[in-house]
Structure formats: structure tokens, C-alpha cells
Amino acid sequence: MNAAELTQAFQQVFPEASPPIFCYAPGRVNLIGEHIDYNGMPVLPMTMDRRIAVAFSARSDALIRLVNADPTFPPATFDNLPDIPPSQKGAWENYGKAAIQGINQYFDIQPGKGIDLLVTSDIPIAAGLSSSSGLIVATALAYLHVLGKTLGGDIERIELAQCLAQAERYAGAHGGGMDQAIILLGAKDTALKIDFFPLRIEPVPLPLGYCLVVCNSLVKAEKTGAARHRYNEGPLIGKILTALVQKHLQSEWDEDIEINRLGDLWLGHLCLTHQEVQELFEAVFTCDQTTVDEIAEALQIKPARLQQEWLADIPSPPDGLSLKSKARHQRTEFHRVEMARDACEAQDGAALGRLMVESHRSCADDYGVSCPELDRLVELALEAGAVGARLTGAGFGGCTINLVPETEVDHFQQTMTQNYYRDFLNTEPPAHAILRVKPCAAADYS
Ligand code: GLA
Fold first, then answer.
1. Cβ(40) – ligand 1 distance below 6 Å
2. 3-state secondary structure 362-400
3. Helices (H), 306-444
4. Among 87, 97, 142, which residue's Cα sits nearest to residue 118?
5. Measured from the CB, is residue 178 less than 6 Å from ligand 1?
6. Closest C-alpha among 243, 260, 265, 241 to residue 326
7. How far apart are CA 128 and CA 28, in angstroms?
8. Cα separation of 9 and 30, whole Å?
9. What phi and psi, each to the nearest 5 degrees, are found at residue 329?
10. Ligand 1 contact, 38 CB (< 6 A)
11. Structural contact between residues 400 and 392, judged by C-beta atoms closer than 8 angstroms
12. What count of Cα atoms within 13 Å lies in the side-chain half-sphere of residue 124?
């Protein structure tokens, strides 16, 4: 929708409201660095030229009214209270509530102001392209405006990204900070290497002569829905890996070593090399599967306490958790992000492509966040001329990102349409199942 259409739609939905103001937030594609941000390791995403656009205006009371132009998402109204109760799990308005509550807490505002918001989006939903974080960011920008707070004045983009990464947990998934950071700090024509704790960014050029193409597996991956438990397993396992490594180092070195997150091994005061971390992991994670009893013994706590406090809602599989391969994914994916950044700097598309494929295999085989459809999409993409292909985002469905030579891109699109959608899924691809994407400006007002 352009500004005139959005204004008209807004006035239809909220006829009594004052003329709207607009803000938007792009979707994101992660090029490489999957499921490692929450352990404090770097990632390499970019914004994409699809976005959430919000028309909004202030109200004179403390009511928040959220309407989505897509009728699949029912309208929601709630009071801007100091403690906003969440709607049922999976409800879209929880992202709006998360943003309002997050900003209220950041500025210590109570009670907050009211706002009417109309949300439109052309980011595919539940496809791993961060439409949910886009919604949080856009709602936060709208609310900041209503509060008279300026981005870059009252709150820096980097602070807002950190505040909203924390705020998004309200909706149930315990994500890292990648999505909010790229949506607020990304830029046209460039990817970003993002580091965490503290959040910092480094622009990374994309290799010339290649297109980035997103292919939707059409398997829905709702981070607030069924995929939430599977997603939340990642950060919990990260905590266990960290604790086990810390215990091992303490007993080896007979010193009181503190590691807050796995990434501290490389980036904290220990400053280990990739080789040293590999040797360390080989010493700590000796078996393919580790049972809850074995973990509890190593950490010197009771199995029941481990299950209750650490594993929360992860059912403990009888044959144990595959800590060894999960740790391997963390280690190798971190290294791949650094090599991918170097490949981009060297304009070496073929090297970036190889790293993307390795990353996909690691996500699938070592970390267990792929699915048969994503694996098939990657295989077919490589046959259809892509030099790199991998799942992007949380996985469990959603999309792949493909690095395709410009000269091959039409052929790639036709071949994927036939081989994946028609032959493998036995369906006609819906509009926008295959998208050529480019990095665009970060979230802002317009
Ligand atoms: C989701 C989370 C991110 C990140 C990815 C996986 O998008 O929001 O923080 O963990 O999954 O890389």
C-alpha cells in the first residue's frame, strides 16, 4: 500500500481518529550464523525489501487498538497498563503488547498513552523472515512518536534494538537479538555482521554478480506456535553447554572461572582460538548422547532440579540429549560467520556459497532445526544453479536463502518452480513463494 491507500484504509478503520503518521520495519534474511546469537556469537543477516507498514495516531485515552489489514489476524484492543496481561499464546497482538510494555519499562512510564494502529505487511508470515520482530519494531516506533520520544535523541537505535530483543520474550520465544538489531540498524545494499554483549555492528558488502533469492518451503514455522518449544530448547541447551564447559575448566585449571555464555570462550577474557575451543569441546563432550543423570552428575546438582530449573519444558529423551553435536554446531557456525564475512570482503561469492551449504548441513545434522522440505529445497537449489543455499531464521520450516549468479537467476526460478513446488510438493507455487531480495533501509518513519 502507498501512503494514500494506507491513509484511506486507516480512516476507514478508525473514522474518528486524527490523520495518521507512518512508520515501517523491513523483514530480514539471515545469510549465515544460525542459532548462535543467543549464545553471544556473531551473525551475518541483512534487511530485505519487504516490510511491515503501520499507520497510527495518538488517542486521548489509554486504549491501544491494533488492527491488521490481513483479516486472518483479528483486531485487538487493550488498556495501556503498567503490566499488560498477554493474550493467549500465539495471538498476533502479543507482539504489539510486547513493544508497548517494553517501551513503558525502558522509560518507566505508567500509565501509558493510547494509540490506534493499522498494520499492513508484505513479509510472508511464519516463514522465518522476521515478520514478528518487524511488528514489534514498527509498533515501538509508533508508540515512541506518540510519547514524543525521538529515535537517536531519547533512545539510540542500538538501545532500542536491545530493549526490544528483551521485550519480545513477552510473546514466549527466548530469541537472541539478531532480528531486532538488523531491522533497526541494517542499511541499503549491505549485510551486517552483528556481535552481541555488547551489541555492535560491522557493514559487510555482498558479492557482486549474485542475486539473493528466498524460497518458501511452505511449511509454516510459527515461533509463537508449535515451533516455540523447539526454538526455546536452543537457549536452554546453550546454558547447559556453558555450565558443563565451565565446570570442566574449573576442575582442569583449579580456578574459579566464570563464563556467562558460550561465546565468552572466544570473546571473553579467556580469548580461546577456534582450535582451542575444538579441543576443549572434544574433552568435555565425549559421547554422542548425554543423559539428564550424566549432566546432573557433571554439574553436581540433583537430576530433578536440573529437569525442573534448567530443562523447563524440554522433555528429556530417554537416550539423552545430543550435546556433542549441538556444541559442534555452535563452534563451527561461529567460525563460518567469520569466514563468510571474509569471503564477502574478498568478493568471493563461491566461497560464501560453500559456507552457506556447510551451515545448512550443520543446522540440519548437528543442530536439528531443519526439516525434509528445507533439505530438499537446498538440494534442488544447488542443482538449479545456486552456489549457496541454506535455511534462514529459526528453521523447522519457513524459507531458504539462495546465492544465485545473476546470469542464472531466471533459470533458477523456473527450475525451482517445477522441481520443488510442482514435482516435490505437487502444488502450484503461491504468489511470492520465490522472492529476489535486496538489503534495504532500516526501520523508520516515512
Ligand atoms: C529467530 C530468533 C533469532 C535467532 C534465529 C536463529 O529468528 O529471533 O534471535 O536465534 O531465530 O538464528
1. no
2. HHHHHCCCCCHHHHHHHHHHHHCCCCEEEECCCCCCCEE
3. 323-345, 349-361, 372-383, 409-416
4. 142
5. yes
6. 241
7. 9
8. 32
9. -60, -45
10. yes
11. yes
12. 26
139 contacts: CB under 8 Å, gap ≥ 6:
54, 66, 95, 96, 99, 100, 117, 119
Confirm whether pTM is higher than 0.90: yes
- Rounded Cα–Cα distance for residues 285 and 16 (Å): 63
Q: Grid coordinates representing 205? A: 558488502
Per annotation, catalytic residue among 37, 179, 264, 366: 179
Which helix (H) or strand (E) segment holds residue 93: the answer is: helix 93-107
Please count the other Cβ atoms lying within 10 Å of the Cβ belonging to residue 115: 25
One-letter amino acid at 181 equals: A
List pLDDT tens digits, range 69-114. 999 999 999 999 999 999 998 899 999 999 999 999 999 998 889 9
Type of residue numbered 417: T
Burial of 70 (0-12, 13-18, 19+ CB in 10 A): exposed
Per-residue pLDDT of 186-209, as tens digits, reads 999 999 999 999 999 999 999 999
- For ligand 1, atom 11, name the residue with the nearest CA: 394
Active site residue 179: yes
Query: What's the N-to-C CA distance of the chain in angstroms?
Result: 13
Distances from the Cα of 406 to the Cαs of 207, 212, 354, 378, in angstroms?
Answer: 11, 9, 17, 18
CB atoms within 10 A of CB 129: 28
For residues 56, 58, 63 and 69, what is the CA-based torsion angle, rounded to 10 degrees? -10
- Which residues sit opposite 402 in a β-bridge? 213, 389
Q: For ligand 1, what atom is nearest to the CA of residue 128?
A: 7
